[in-house]
Design brief:
By secondary structure, this protein is of the alpha+beta class. The protein contains 18 helices and 13 strands. Helix 15 runs antiparallel to helix 17, helix 16 packs antiparallel against helix 17 and helix 16 packs parallel to helix 18.
Length: 561
Protein backbone atom coordinates (compact mmCIF):
# COMPACT_ATOMS: atom_id res chain seq x y z
CA UNK A 1 0.00 0.00 0.00
CA UNK A 2 1.05 3.60 -0.49
CA UNK A 3 3.56 4.99 2.00
CA UNK A 4 2.70 8.47 3.26
CA UNK A 5 4.76 10.59 5.62
CA UNK A 6 3.93 14.13 6.67
CA UNK A 7 6.50 16.88 7.11
CA UNK A 8 5.81 20.13 8.99
CA UNK A 9 8.73 22.58 8.63
CA UNK A 10 8.47 25.88 10.51
CA UNK A 11 10.12 28.79 8.70
CA UNK A 12 11.13 32.02 10.46
CA UNK A 13 9.20 34.29 8.10
CA UNK A 14 5.52 35.10 8.44
CA UNK A 15 5.20 38.55 6.91
CA UNK A 16 6.78 38.56 3.45
CA UNK A 17 4.32 36.54 1.35
CA UNK A 18 6.67 36.45 -1.65
CA UNK A 19 9.38 34.72 0.36
CA UNK A 20 6.81 32.25 1.70
CA UNK A 21 5.56 31.62 -1.86
CA UNK A 22 9.07 30.87 -3.12
CA UNK A 23 9.71 28.42 -0.27
CA UNK A 24 6.44 26.53 -0.84
CA UNK A 25 7.08 26.53 -4.60
CA UNK A 26 10.42 24.83 -3.97
CA UNK A 27 8.65 22.20 -1.86
CA UNK A 28 5.92 21.64 -4.46
CA UNK A 29 8.50 21.24 -7.24
CA UNK A 30 9.11 17.65 -6.08
CA UNK A 31 6.96 15.09 -7.88
CA UNK A 32 4.60 13.19 -5.61
CA UNK A 33 4.40 15.90 -2.95
CA UNK A 34 1.06 17.38 -1.86
CA UNK A 35 1.14 20.78 -0.16
CA UNK A 36 -1.59 20.47 2.47
CA UNK A 37 -1.47 23.74 4.39
CA UNK A 38 0.44 27.02 4.68
CA UNK A 39 -0.16 28.98 7.90
CA UNK A 40 1.76 32.30 8.16
CA UNK A 41 1.70 34.42 11.34
CA UNK A 42 2.64 38.08 11.25
CA UNK A 43 3.17 38.63 14.99
CA UNK A 44 5.15 35.40 15.40
CA UNK A 45 6.94 36.07 12.09
CA UNK A 46 6.74 32.38 11.41
CA UNK A 47 5.08 30.13 8.82
CA UNK A 48 4.09 26.53 9.44
CA UNK A 49 4.01 24.51 6.21
CA UNK A 50 2.44 21.04 6.02
CA UNK A 51 3.08 18.70 3.11
CA UNK A 52 3.03 14.93 2.56
CA UNK A 53 4.28 12.30 0.16
CA UNK A 54 6.32 9.10 0.10
CA UNK A 55 9.46 9.13 2.30
CA UNK A 56 11.95 9.71 -0.53
CA UNK A 57 9.96 12.59 -2.00
CA UNK A 58 9.36 14.12 1.45
CA UNK A 59 13.09 14.23 2.22
CA UNK A 60 13.82 15.89 -1.13
CA UNK A 61 11.00 18.42 -0.72
CA UNK A 62 12.11 19.29 2.81
CA UNK A 63 15.67 19.82 1.63
CA UNK A 64 14.55 22.14 -1.17
CA UNK A 65 12.40 24.12 1.26
CA UNK A 66 15.27 24.46 3.77
CA UNK A 67 17.66 25.40 0.97
CA UNK A 68 15.34 28.14 -0.30
CA UNK A 69 14.73 29.44 3.24
CA UNK A 70 18.49 29.65 3.83
CA UNK A 71 18.79 31.66 0.62
CA UNK A 72 15.94 34.11 1.34
CA UNK A 73 15.76 34.52 5.15
CA UNK A 74 18.42 36.49 7.00
CA UNK A 75 18.27 35.65 10.70
CA UNK A 76 20.39 38.69 11.53
CA UNK A 77 17.34 40.81 10.74
CA UNK A 78 14.58 38.44 11.92
CA UNK A 79 12.35 39.47 14.83
CA UNK A 80 9.16 37.79 16.07
CA UNK A 81 7.19 36.69 19.10
CA UNK A 82 7.88 32.95 18.59
CA UNK A 83 11.07 31.29 19.90
CA UNK A 84 13.43 30.47 17.02
CA UNK A 85 17.01 29.50 16.26
CA UNK A 86 17.14 29.33 12.47
CA UNK A 87 15.64 30.22 9.10
CA UNK A 88 14.12 26.74 9.15
CA UNK A 89 13.58 26.47 12.88
CA UNK A 90 12.23 22.93 13.13
CA UNK A 91 11.38 20.21 10.60
CA UNK A 92 9.64 17.09 11.94
CA UNK A 93 8.61 13.99 9.97
CA UNK A 94 5.37 12.29 11.07
CA UNK A 95 4.31 8.82 9.84
CA UNK A 96 0.79 8.87 8.39
CA UNK A 97 0.22 5.64 6.48
CA UNK A 98 2.33 2.46 6.10
CA UNK A 99 5.52 4.17 7.32
CA UNK A 100 7.41 2.70 10.30
CA UNK A 101 9.27 4.69 12.95
CA UNK A 102 12.51 3.30 11.56
CA UNK A 103 11.69 4.81 8.16
CA UNK A 104 10.67 8.15 9.70
CA UNK A 105 13.90 8.33 11.70
CA UNK A 106 15.88 7.47 8.57
CA UNK A 107 14.18 10.40 6.80
CA UNK A 108 15.29 12.76 9.57
CA UNK A 109 18.85 11.44 9.46
CA UNK A 110 19.10 11.63 5.66
CA UNK A 111 17.77 15.19 5.62
CA UNK A 112 20.00 16.25 8.53
CA UNK A 113 23.09 14.90 6.80
CA UNK A 114 22.29 16.71 3.54
CA UNK A 115 21.50 20.02 5.27
CA UNK A 116 24.68 19.82 7.32
CA UNK A 117 26.98 18.75 4.50
CA UNK A 118 25.56 20.67 1.54
CA UNK A 119 24.16 23.82 3.17
CA UNK A 120 26.69 24.05 6.05
CA UNK A 121 23.89 24.58 8.57
CA UNK A 122 24.25 23.02 12.05
CA UNK A 123 21.58 20.35 12.55
CA UNK A 124 20.26 18.82 15.77
CA UNK A 125 18.09 15.69 15.81
CA UNK A 126 15.14 15.61 18.21
CA UNK A 127 12.23 13.53 19.50
CA UNK A 128 12.37 9.91 18.22
CA UNK A 129 15.33 10.70 15.92
CA UNK A 130 17.50 12.07 18.74
CA UNK A 131 20.88 10.36 19.10
CA UNK A 132 21.26 11.77 22.62
CA UNK A 133 18.15 11.35 24.84
CA UNK A 134 19.07 14.53 26.73
CA UNK A 135 18.59 16.46 23.47
CA UNK A 136 15.25 14.96 22.44
CA UNK A 137 13.16 17.88 23.70
CA UNK A 138 12.81 20.78 21.24
CA UNK A 139 12.59 23.49 23.92
CA UNK A 140 15.85 22.28 25.54
CA UNK A 141 17.68 22.37 22.21
CA UNK A 142 16.29 25.79 21.32
CA UNK A 143 17.03 27.35 24.72
CA UNK A 144 19.01 30.56 24.21
CA UNK A 145 17.48 30.93 20.74
CA UNK A 146 19.32 32.43 17.78
CA UNK A 147 21.08 35.11 19.78
CA UNK A 148 22.44 32.69 22.39
CA UNK A 149 23.59 29.96 20.04
CA UNK A 150 26.80 31.69 18.96
CA UNK A 151 28.28 30.71 22.34
CA UNK A 152 26.16 27.62 23.05
CA UNK A 153 27.38 25.77 19.97
CA UNK A 154 30.99 26.03 21.18
CA UNK A 155 30.20 23.78 24.15
CA UNK A 156 31.07 20.10 23.71
CA UNK A 157 27.59 19.12 24.89
CA UNK A 158 26.07 21.10 22.04
CA UNK A 159 28.11 19.85 19.11
CA UNK A 160 25.61 19.46 16.22
CA UNK A 161 24.60 16.01 14.99
CA UNK A 162 25.35 17.15 11.45
CA UNK A 163 27.07 20.16 9.91
CA UNK A 164 29.75 22.49 11.26
CA UNK A 165 30.13 23.28 14.96
CA UNK A 166 30.17 26.96 13.99
CA UNK A 167 26.94 28.92 14.13
CA UNK A 168 25.66 29.96 10.71
CA UNK A 169 25.15 33.71 11.13
CA UNK A 170 22.67 34.12 8.28
CA UNK A 171 20.67 30.89 8.54
CA UNK A 172 21.12 29.91 12.19
CA UNK A 173 20.65 26.25 13.08
CA UNK A 174 17.91 23.73 12.34
CA UNK A 175 16.24 21.00 14.41
CA UNK A 176 15.10 17.93 12.46
CA UNK A 177 13.32 14.90 13.85
CA UNK A 178 10.53 12.35 13.86
CA UNK A 179 7.53 12.67 16.15
CA UNK A 180 4.04 11.39 16.80
CA UNK A 181 1.10 12.85 14.93
CA UNK A 182 -0.57 15.51 17.08
CA UNK A 183 -4.30 16.13 16.74
CA UNK A 184 -5.89 19.28 18.13
CA UNK A 185 -9.37 18.15 19.15
CA UNK A 186 -12.15 20.14 20.84
CA UNK A 187 -15.27 18.63 22.42
CA UNK A 188 -18.39 20.83 22.63
CA UNK A 189 -20.43 21.10 25.83
CA UNK A 190 -23.95 22.37 26.45
CA UNK A 191 -22.68 25.11 28.77
CA UNK A 192 -21.07 28.51 28.56
CA UNK A 193 -19.22 28.09 31.88
CA UNK A 194 -15.46 27.84 31.50
CA UNK A 195 -15.16 26.50 35.06
CA UNK A 196 -17.41 23.55 34.25
CA UNK A 197 -15.55 22.82 31.01
CA UNK A 198 -12.26 22.99 32.93
CA UNK A 199 -13.59 20.41 35.42
CA UNK A 200 -14.21 17.99 32.55
CA UNK A 201 -10.74 18.78 31.17
CA UNK A 202 -9.17 17.96 34.55
CA UNK A 203 -11.10 14.67 34.59
CA UNK A 204 -9.74 13.50 31.24
CA UNK A 205 -6.23 14.96 30.84
CA UNK A 206 -3.24 12.83 31.83
CA UNK A 207 -1.98 15.42 34.34
CA UNK A 208 -5.36 15.40 36.09
CA UNK A 209 -5.80 17.78 39.02
CA UNK A 210 -4.21 18.58 42.38
CA UNK A 211 -5.61 16.43 45.20
CA UNK A 212 -7.19 18.42 48.03
CA UNK A 213 -7.92 17.40 51.63
CA UNK A 214 -11.67 17.98 51.31
CA UNK A 215 -11.92 16.98 47.68
CA UNK A 216 -13.08 20.47 46.69
CA UNK A 217 -11.44 22.37 43.80
CA UNK A 218 -10.25 25.22 46.01
CA UNK A 219 -9.45 23.10 49.05
CA UNK A 220 -6.11 22.71 50.78
CA UNK A 221 -3.74 20.66 48.57
CA UNK A 222 -2.39 17.31 49.78
CA UNK A 223 1.44 17.34 49.77
CA UNK A 224 3.84 14.45 49.31
CA UNK A 225 6.98 13.73 51.37
CA UNK A 226 8.89 16.34 49.37
CA UNK A 227 6.26 19.00 49.94
CA UNK A 228 5.00 18.78 46.37
CA UNK A 229 1.26 18.71 45.59
CA UNK A 230 -0.14 15.23 45.01
CA UNK A 231 -1.97 14.93 41.70
CA UNK A 232 -4.96 12.78 40.84
CA UNK A 233 -4.28 11.51 37.29
CA UNK A 234 -6.93 11.90 34.63
CA UNK A 235 -8.62 9.24 32.50
CA UNK A 236 -6.48 9.53 29.37
CA UNK A 237 -2.78 9.03 28.67
CA UNK A 238 -0.94 11.40 26.29
CA UNK A 239 -3.65 14.06 26.50
CA UNK A 240 -3.31 17.73 27.43
CA UNK A 241 -6.59 19.55 28.01
CA UNK A 242 -8.08 22.84 29.16
CA UNK A 243 -11.58 24.29 29.31
CA UNK A 244 -12.40 27.47 27.43
CA UNK A 245 -15.28 29.52 26.07
CA UNK A 246 -15.54 30.21 22.34
CA UNK A 247 -17.41 33.45 21.61
CA UNK A 248 -17.94 32.51 17.97
CA UNK A 249 -19.84 29.35 18.92
CA UNK A 250 -21.45 30.61 22.13
CA UNK A 251 -20.36 27.51 24.04
CA UNK A 252 -17.62 26.12 26.22
CA UNK A 253 -15.31 23.39 24.97
CA UNK A 254 -12.78 20.92 26.29
CA UNK A 255 -9.75 21.72 24.14
CA UNK A 256 -7.30 18.82 23.86
CA UNK A 257 -4.00 17.91 22.23
CA UNK A 258 -3.77 14.16 21.54
CA UNK A 259 -0.09 13.27 21.23
CA UNK A 260 -0.24 9.47 20.90
CA UNK A 261 -3.14 8.27 18.77
CA UNK A 262 -2.19 4.61 19.18
CA UNK A 263 -2.72 4.69 22.95
CA UNK A 264 -5.43 7.35 23.07
CA UNK A 265 -7.37 7.54 19.80
CA UNK A 266 -9.89 10.21 18.91
CA UNK A 267 -12.95 8.15 19.87
CA UNK A 268 -11.49 7.38 23.31
CA UNK A 269 -11.10 11.11 24.00
CA UNK A 270 -14.68 11.75 22.86
CA UNK A 271 -16.14 9.02 25.06
CA UNK A 272 -14.06 10.05 28.08
CA UNK A 273 -15.36 13.62 27.77
CA UNK A 274 -18.91 12.32 27.42
CA UNK A 275 -18.55 10.18 30.54
CA UNK A 276 -17.02 13.02 32.58
CA UNK A 277 -19.62 15.52 31.34
CA UNK A 278 -22.54 13.20 32.15
CA UNK A 279 -21.30 12.76 35.72
CA UNK A 280 -21.47 16.54 36.11
CA UNK A 281 -24.94 16.87 34.60
CA UNK A 282 -23.52 18.17 31.31
CA UNK A 283 -23.85 16.81 27.81
CA UNK A 284 -21.41 16.59 24.92
CA UNK A 285 -23.15 17.98 21.84
CA UNK A 286 -20.44 17.40 19.26
CA UNK A 287 -16.76 17.99 18.57
CA UNK A 288 -14.31 19.49 16.08
CA UNK A 289 -10.90 18.60 14.70
CA UNK A 290 -8.55 21.53 14.16
CA UNK A 291 -6.51 21.01 10.99
CA UNK A 292 -6.05 17.67 9.24
CA UNK A 293 -5.74 14.11 10.46
CA UNK A 294 -4.82 10.65 9.14
CA UNK A 295 -7.56 8.50 7.67
CA UNK A 296 -6.88 5.78 10.25
CA UNK A 297 -8.24 8.01 13.06
CA UNK A 298 -11.75 8.04 11.64
CA UNK A 299 -11.69 4.51 10.23
CA UNK A 300 -10.85 3.12 13.68
CA UNK A 301 -13.46 5.39 15.28
CA UNK A 302 -16.09 4.11 12.85
CA UNK A 303 -15.26 0.50 13.77
CA UNK A 304 -15.41 1.37 17.47
CA UNK A 305 -18.89 2.87 17.22
CA UNK A 306 -20.16 -0.05 15.11
CA UNK A 307 -18.89 -2.43 17.81
CA UNK A 308 -20.83 -0.45 20.40
CA UNK A 309 -23.91 -0.87 18.19
CA UNK A 310 -23.24 -4.64 18.00
CA UNK A 311 -22.94 -4.42 14.24
CA UNK A 312 -20.42 -5.76 11.73
CA UNK A 313 -17.26 -3.67 11.39
CA UNK A 314 -16.76 -4.84 7.82
CA UNK A 315 -17.92 -1.60 6.22
CA UNK A 316 -16.08 0.38 3.56
CA UNK A 317 -13.70 3.15 4.59
CA UNK A 318 -16.18 5.72 3.35
CA UNK A 319 -18.99 4.29 5.48
CA UNK A 320 -16.76 3.94 8.56
CA UNK A 321 -15.70 7.57 8.25
CA UNK A 322 -19.34 8.66 7.93
CA UNK A 323 -20.22 6.68 11.07
CA UNK A 324 -17.35 8.36 12.94
CA UNK A 325 -18.32 11.87 11.80
CA UNK A 326 -21.94 11.35 12.85
CA UNK A 327 -21.12 9.59 16.14
CA UNK A 328 -18.73 12.32 17.31
CA UNK A 329 -20.76 15.21 15.89
CA UNK A 330 -17.82 16.51 13.85
CA UNK A 331 -20.16 18.57 11.66
CA UNK A 332 -22.03 20.29 14.50
CA UNK A 333 -20.19 23.62 14.19
CA UNK A 334 -19.27 23.53 10.49
CA UNK A 335 -19.47 20.83 7.80
CA UNK A 336 -16.71 18.23 8.07
CA UNK A 337 -15.56 17.38 4.55
CA UNK A 338 -13.38 14.23 4.58
CA UNK A 339 -11.89 15.14 1.19
CA UNK A 340 -10.46 18.33 2.68
CA UNK A 341 -9.71 17.20 6.24
CA UNK A 342 -8.21 13.72 5.78
CA UNK A 343 -4.59 13.73 4.61
CA UNK A 344 -4.81 10.71 2.31
CA UNK A 345 -8.01 11.98 0.62
CA UNK A 346 -6.54 15.45 0.16
CA UNK A 347 -3.52 13.90 -1.53
CA UNK A 348 -5.68 11.75 -3.77
CA UNK A 349 -7.66 14.76 -4.97
CA UNK A 350 -4.42 16.52 -5.92
CA UNK A 351 -3.02 13.47 -7.73
CA UNK A 352 -3.62 12.33 -11.28
CA UNK A 353 -7.00 10.85 -12.16
CA UNK A 354 -7.43 7.44 -10.57
CA UNK A 355 -9.00 4.50 -12.38
CA UNK A 356 -10.77 3.36 -9.22
CA UNK A 357 -12.42 6.78 -8.86
CA UNK A 358 -14.13 6.35 -12.25
CA UNK A 359 -17.66 5.01 -12.57
CA UNK A 360 -18.12 1.65 -14.29
CA UNK A 361 -18.88 3.14 -17.69
CA UNK A 362 -15.85 5.44 -17.55
CA UNK A 363 -13.58 2.55 -16.57
CA UNK A 364 -14.87 0.36 -19.41
CA UNK A 365 -14.57 3.22 -21.89
CA UNK A 366 -11.00 3.91 -20.77
CA UNK A 367 -10.12 0.22 -21.10
CA UNK A 368 -11.80 -0.01 -24.52
CA UNK A 369 -9.93 3.02 -25.91
CA UNK A 370 -6.87 2.79 -28.17
CA UNK A 371 -4.50 3.37 -25.23
CA UNK A 372 -2.58 0.27 -23.99
CA UNK A 373 -3.26 1.23 -20.36
CA UNK A 374 -5.32 0.37 -18.45
CA UNK A 375 -4.98 -3.15 -19.76
CA UNK A 376 -5.16 -6.76 -18.64
CA UNK A 377 -3.19 -6.17 -15.43
CA UNK A 378 -5.55 -3.53 -14.08
CA UNK A 379 -8.61 -5.51 -15.17
CA UNK A 380 -7.26 -8.64 -13.46
CA UNK A 381 -6.79 -6.71 -10.21
CA UNK A 382 -10.32 -5.34 -10.49
CA UNK A 383 -11.73 -8.86 -10.96
CA UNK A 384 -9.93 -9.88 -7.78
CA UNK A 385 -11.37 -6.91 -5.91
CA UNK A 386 -14.87 -7.85 -7.10
CA UNK A 387 -14.36 -11.48 -6.07
CA UNK A 388 -13.24 -10.67 -2.54
CA UNK A 389 -16.01 -8.04 -2.27
CA UNK A 390 -18.59 -10.77 -2.87
CA UNK A 391 -16.99 -12.82 -0.10
CA UNK A 392 -17.15 -9.79 2.20
CA UNK A 393 -20.78 -9.23 1.29
CA UNK A 394 -21.61 -12.77 2.40
CA UNK A 395 -19.73 -12.17 5.67
CA UNK A 396 -21.73 -9.00 6.35
CA UNK A 397 -25.03 -10.67 5.46
CA UNK A 398 -24.15 -13.56 7.76
CA UNK A 399 -23.18 -11.16 10.57
CA UNK A 400 -26.62 -9.54 10.35
CA UNK A 401 -28.60 -12.78 10.01
CA UNK A 402 -31.36 -13.10 12.61
CA UNK A 403 -30.66 -15.92 15.03
CA UNK A 404 -26.92 -15.81 14.35
CA UNK A 405 -26.16 -13.03 16.86
CA UNK A 406 -23.59 -15.19 18.65
CA UNK A 407 -21.63 -15.46 15.38
CA UNK A 408 -21.37 -11.67 14.88
CA UNK A 409 -17.69 -11.31 15.96
CA UNK A 410 -16.63 -14.20 13.68
CA UNK A 411 -18.30 -12.85 10.54
CA UNK A 412 -17.43 -9.24 11.37
CA UNK A 413 -13.73 -10.18 11.51
CA UNK A 414 -13.96 -11.81 8.10
CA UNK A 415 -15.78 -8.79 6.66
CA UNK A 416 -12.99 -6.52 7.95
CA UNK A 417 -10.39 -8.76 6.27
CA UNK A 418 -12.40 -8.61 3.04
CA UNK A 419 -12.32 -4.81 3.13
CA UNK A 420 -8.53 -4.86 3.59
CA UNK A 421 -7.99 -7.29 0.71
CA UNK A 422 -10.36 -5.33 -1.53
CA UNK A 423 -8.49 -2.09 -0.82
CA UNK A 424 -5.13 -3.73 -1.57
CA UNK A 425 -6.40 -5.00 -4.93
CA UNK A 426 -7.96 -1.65 -5.83
CA UNK A 427 -4.63 0.03 -5.09
CA UNK A 428 -3.01 -2.42 -7.50
CA UNK A 429 -5.56 -1.55 -10.22
CA UNK A 430 -3.97 1.90 -10.43
CA UNK A 431 -0.45 0.70 -9.65
CA UNK A 432 -0.42 -1.70 -12.61
CA UNK A 433 -1.10 1.20 -14.97
CA UNK A 434 1.52 3.29 -13.14
CA UNK A 435 4.03 0.46 -13.61
CA UNK A 436 3.31 0.35 -17.35
CA UNK A 437 3.85 4.10 -17.55
CA UNK A 438 7.23 3.71 -15.81
CA UNK A 439 8.28 1.33 -18.59
CA UNK A 440 7.19 3.81 -21.26
CA UNK A 441 9.01 6.64 -19.49
CA UNK A 442 12.19 4.55 -19.34
CA UNK A 443 12.06 3.84 -23.09
CA UNK A 444 11.63 7.58 -23.70
CA UNK A 445 14.93 8.47 -21.97
CA UNK A 446 17.70 9.92 -24.19
CA UNK A 447 20.26 7.50 -25.66
CA UNK A 448 22.73 9.71 -27.51
CA UNK A 449 25.87 9.24 -25.41
CA UNK A 450 27.30 6.04 -23.93
CA UNK A 451 26.39 7.24 -20.41
CA UNK A 452 22.81 7.94 -21.47
CA UNK A 453 22.50 4.51 -23.09
CA UNK A 454 23.75 2.83 -19.91
CA UNK A 455 21.37 4.85 -17.73
CA UNK A 456 18.45 4.20 -20.11
CA UNK A 457 19.12 0.45 -20.16
CA UNK A 458 19.27 0.30 -16.35
CA UNK A 459 16.02 2.30 -16.07
CA UNK A 460 14.25 -0.05 -18.51
CA UNK A 461 15.37 -3.09 -16.50
CA UNK A 462 14.14 -1.55 -13.22
CA UNK A 463 10.81 -0.60 -14.81
CA UNK A 464 10.29 -4.06 -16.35
CA UNK A 465 11.06 -5.73 -13.01
CA UNK A 466 8.53 -3.48 -11.25
CA UNK A 467 5.96 -4.10 -14.00
CA UNK A 468 6.33 -7.84 -13.34
CA UNK A 469 6.25 -7.48 -9.55
CA UNK A 470 2.91 -5.61 -9.48
CA UNK A 471 0.79 -8.38 -11.14
CA UNK A 472 2.65 -10.88 -8.94
CA UNK A 473 1.40 -8.88 -5.92
CA UNK A 474 -2.08 -9.09 -7.44
CA UNK A 475 -1.74 -12.88 -7.58
CA UNK A 476 -0.51 -13.08 -3.98
CA UNK A 477 -3.29 -10.83 -2.65
CA UNK A 478 -6.02 -12.62 -4.57
CA UNK A 479 -4.72 -16.01 -3.42
CA UNK A 480 -4.99 -14.87 0.22
CA UNK A 481 -8.67 -14.20 -0.51
CA UNK A 482 -9.46 -17.88 -1.09
CA UNK A 483 -9.48 -18.48 2.66
CA UNK A 484 -12.30 -15.94 3.05
CA UNK A 485 -14.40 -17.57 0.32
CA UNK A 486 -13.76 -21.03 1.76
CA UNK A 487 -15.05 -19.92 5.16
CA UNK A 488 -18.11 -18.27 3.64
CA UNK A 489 -18.85 -21.32 1.49
CA UNK A 490 -18.64 -23.57 4.52
CA UNK A 491 -20.18 -21.41 7.28
CA UNK A 492 -21.81 -18.38 5.65
CA UNK A 493 -25.46 -17.65 5.00
CA UNK A 494 -26.62 -20.55 2.75
CA UNK A 495 -28.85 -18.19 0.78
CA UNK A 496 -25.70 -16.46 -0.54
CA UNK A 497 -23.82 -19.55 -1.74
CA UNK A 498 -24.15 -18.52 -5.39
CA UNK A 499 -22.41 -15.23 -4.55
CA UNK A 500 -19.50 -17.20 -3.10
CA UNK A 501 -19.37 -19.15 -6.38
CA UNK A 502 -19.23 -16.01 -8.51
CA UNK A 503 -16.55 -14.55 -6.24
CA UNK A 504 -14.56 -17.77 -6.61
CA UNK A 505 -14.66 -17.55 -10.42
CA UNK A 506 -13.56 -13.91 -10.28
CA UNK A 507 -10.58 -14.75 -8.05
CA UNK A 508 -9.37 -17.53 -10.33
CA UNK A 509 -9.71 -15.28 -13.38
CA UNK A 510 -7.78 -12.58 -11.50
CA UNK A 511 -4.90 -14.91 -10.64
CA UNK A 512 -4.68 -16.47 -14.11
CA UNK A 513 -4.90 -13.06 -15.78
CA UNK A 514 -2.27 -11.51 -13.52
CA UNK A 515 0.03 -14.48 -14.25
CA UNK A 516 -0.11 -13.62 -17.97
CA UNK A 517 0.98 -10.07 -17.15
CA UNK A 518 3.90 -11.22 -15.05
CA UNK A 519 5.08 -13.46 -17.88
CA UNK A 520 4.91 -10.80 -20.58
CA UNK A 521 6.92 -8.34 -18.48
CA UNK A 522 9.53 -10.98 -17.63
CA UNK A 523 10.35 -11.22 -21.33
CA UNK A 524 12.18 -7.89 -21.15
CA UNK A 525 14.30 -8.81 -18.11
CA UNK A 526 17.96 -9.70 -18.61
CA UNK A 527 18.70 -10.76 -15.03
CA UNK A 528 18.13 -14.51 -15.26
CA UNK A 529 18.26 -15.00 -11.49
CA UNK A 530 15.44 -12.50 -10.91
CA UNK A 531 13.49 -13.86 -13.86
CA UNK A 532 13.76 -17.44 -12.58
CA UNK A 533 12.66 -16.42 -9.08
CA UNK A 534 9.56 -14.59 -10.35
CA UNK A 535 8.67 -17.43 -12.73
CA UNK A 536 8.87 -19.92 -9.87
CA UNK A 537 6.51 -17.82 -7.73
CA UNK A 538 4.02 -17.53 -10.59
CA UNK A 539 3.99 -21.29 -11.19
CA UNK A 540 3.58 -22.03 -7.48
CA UNK A 541 0.66 -19.62 -6.97
CA UNK A 542 -1.04 -20.75 -10.19
CA UNK A 543 -0.90 -24.42 -9.17
CA UNK A 544 -2.09 -23.72 -5.61
CA UNK A 545 -4.85 -21.47 -6.96
CA UNK A 546 -6.20 -24.26 -9.14
CA UNK A 547 -6.19 -26.63 -6.19
CA UNK A 548 -8.01 -24.15 -3.92
CA UNK A 549 -10.50 -23.31 -6.65
CA UNK A 550 -11.45 -26.98 -7.08
CA UNK A 551 -11.69 -27.57 -3.33
CA UNK A 552 -13.99 -24.61 -2.65
CA UNK A 553 -16.03 -25.26 -5.81
CA UNK A 554 -16.92 -28.69 -4.44
CA UNK A 555 -18.34 -27.05 -1.29
CA UNK A 556 -20.32 -24.57 -3.38
CA UNK A 557 -21.67 -27.28 -5.69
CA UNK A 558 -22.70 -29.49 -2.77
CA UNK A 559 -24.72 -26.65 -1.23
CA UNK A 560 -26.29 -25.58 -4.50
CA UNK A 561 -27.65 -29.14 -4.94
Amino acid sequence: MQKIIECVPNFSEGRDLEIIRQITAAIESVEGISLLNVDPGASTNRTVVTFAGNPEAAVEAAFRGIQKAAELIDMRKQQGAHPRMGATDVCPFIPVSNVSWEEAIACAQQLGQRVGNELKIPVYLYEKAAKDPSRSNLSIIRAGEYEGFFEKIKEAAWKPDFGPAVFNEKSGATVIGAREFLVAYNVNLNTRAVRRAASVAFDVRENGRVKTEDGMPNGKPVLDANGEPVRVPGMLKHVKAIGWYVEEYGMAQVSMNLTNLEETPLHAAFDACSEAANKRGLRVTGSEVVGMLPKKCLVEAGKYFLRKQKWSEGASEEELIDVAVRSMGLSELKPFDPKERIIEFKMESAAKKSLVKMDLRQFCNETLSDSPAPGGGSVAALMGALGVSLGGMVANLSAGKRGWEDKLPYFSDWAVKAQQLKDELLFLVDEDTAAFNKVMDAFALPKESAEEKTARSAAIQRANKYAAEIPLRVMETAFRSYELLAEMADKGNPASISDVGVGLLALRACIDGAALNVRINLAGLKDEKVKSSLQGKVQKITAESESEFKRITQIVESKLG
